[in-house]
Amino acid sequence: KAGDPQRSDQQIVLVFKALSHPFRLELLRQLSGEEACVCNLVERTGRPQPYVSQQMSVLRHAGLVSTWRERQQIHYQVNQDRLQQALSLAAEVGGAAGVTDAQHNDSPGA
Fold it and tell me: φ, ψ for residue 27 (rounded to 5)?
């Protein structure tokens, strides 16, 4: 259902879970400004192909990478729009938390 806040929250959770894994962050760095197939990422990271594929699947499911097929290979590229949305939300939440912390520190008895 479009505009459903619960669905939106679930998508946000998927994105932040995907970003919370150090190797998935490494994969996003590897894809920064370019595209690559799993075979390239395996070579660059030294990790086994099934592991890289599994982690890329998490990133794809969260919408952080887009894919396209060329013959037998699936190519990945960072979805800049989705990544920017996540970073903006993190800044927004962080800013709200900062205001809340400041309010608690200024309250009587703090």
Answer: -65, -40
Q: Provide the angle, in degrees to the nearest 10, between the axes of the packed helices 80-106 and 5-19.
A: 100
* Residue 67 contacts residue 60 (beta carbons within 8 Å): yes
Distances (CA, A) of 102 to 55, 99, 105: 38, 5, 5
**68 and 75 Cβ atoms separated by less than 8 Å:** yes
Q: What is the pLDDT of residue 1?
A: 46
Give the model confidence (pLDDT) of 30-48 as tens digits: 999 899 999 999 999 999 9
* Dihedral of alpha carbons 57, 66, 77, 71, sign: positive
